[in-house]
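Exercise 7. Predict the structure of Iron transporter from Bosea thiooxidans.
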Amino acid sequence: MVAEPSSRSASGSATRDPVVEPSKPRLLKLLGPGLVTGASDDDPSGIATYSQAGAQFGYAASWSLVLTYPLMVAIQIISARVGRTTGHGLAGNIARCHPRWVAYAVTVPLLIANIINIGADLGAMGDALKLLVGGSNRVYVVMFGAICIGLQVLLAYKRYVAVLKWLSLALLTYVAALFVTKVDWAALAWSIALPKLSFDPAYLSILVAIFGTTISPYLFFWQASQEAEDLKEKPGERPLIGHPEQADPARERIQLDTAIGMAISNVIALAIVTTTAATLNPAGLTDIQSSVDAAKALEPIAGSFAKVIFAVGILGTGILAVPVLAGSAAYAIGETAKWPVGLSREPREAKAFYLAVSIATAIGVALNFTEVDPIRALVWSAIVNGVVAVPIMVILMLLAADPKIMKQFVIGPILKTLGWIATAAMTAAIIGMLVTAI
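Solution. The predicted structure, encoded as tokens:
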């Protein structure tokens, strides 16, 4: 089959080059928004959180990554179904069904949290490349910021999505790191099967950070918007509210795509926690402030190979995650403000949307040139995400169960139950942290 995707030039003009699309296994064709969303969840911010959890508490927090899996699958399936059913992203649906101030009340904090995350991720990427080859980390921050903007502005949507899928392979580096460490598998299994809960404020804070990293609000907006975007790129596919005959294959694809994407996300997160729990915690190296700190600390214990693959993973996941963070923020703000939005549009067709992508990334770059230390903000940004996620999750659950919005495609009892459990678990974790801190 021959496809003719649009290639963008720097001026925004489009040219069309015939591209022979190779045949792909059916599974690879089905994987899309769910795979990219899951992979982007393990960004340098997440790596720092998981590294700190393993270094500070050993295997004790491992159970949380098993618990969060069904909950994040449910929430992401619900997000995807909202986008596929209505043809609009999450922010677009909120703006259509609620007063505009409600939409801004949830999207502005999301924008702030995403920009902090972008700055922290870019800083971690700059430090990781400096760790590998030397040089100036600030120069690398600017370089990576430009690359991430270019991926979204200059690449045609189909090619951009393909790049994101390939970048998800960077996560395999953390599986490799796991196999060069000596893991106490029995201790890991016991910590998962019989978790020991603690009311230590530091322990509760890391649990909130894990929840905020794995069940993160930018992922809701991104996957819903990408489902809506894909409708523009796939001939014959339309929103389900107008074409109910497409419902069964669409729901099957979303479930498979999301289940695999979130499984990859949590398996990699568990691998990072396990690696640092098996190496840094026994050595007493518990003060891990960033993903690069973890990479440095691994070298004298697990060898230079572990350091290199940890650092390479930071680079790959960062290039994947920063555009997703900037893009989800632009979707959220753009849909709320009712701008023309979408990575499938040419820049001249959605100037404000692409400007928001570029500005969010540029501010993230600028944070690395101020007194604000974006690396130390990594875990805190995850906690902010956890706090912001609760009202967004409540609104998402109400939207997905509203027949005025979803018609006959309202979520069923299983998804509804898991979705509300996820919302309650996030709420409980945050309340526990605040109560013990006070």
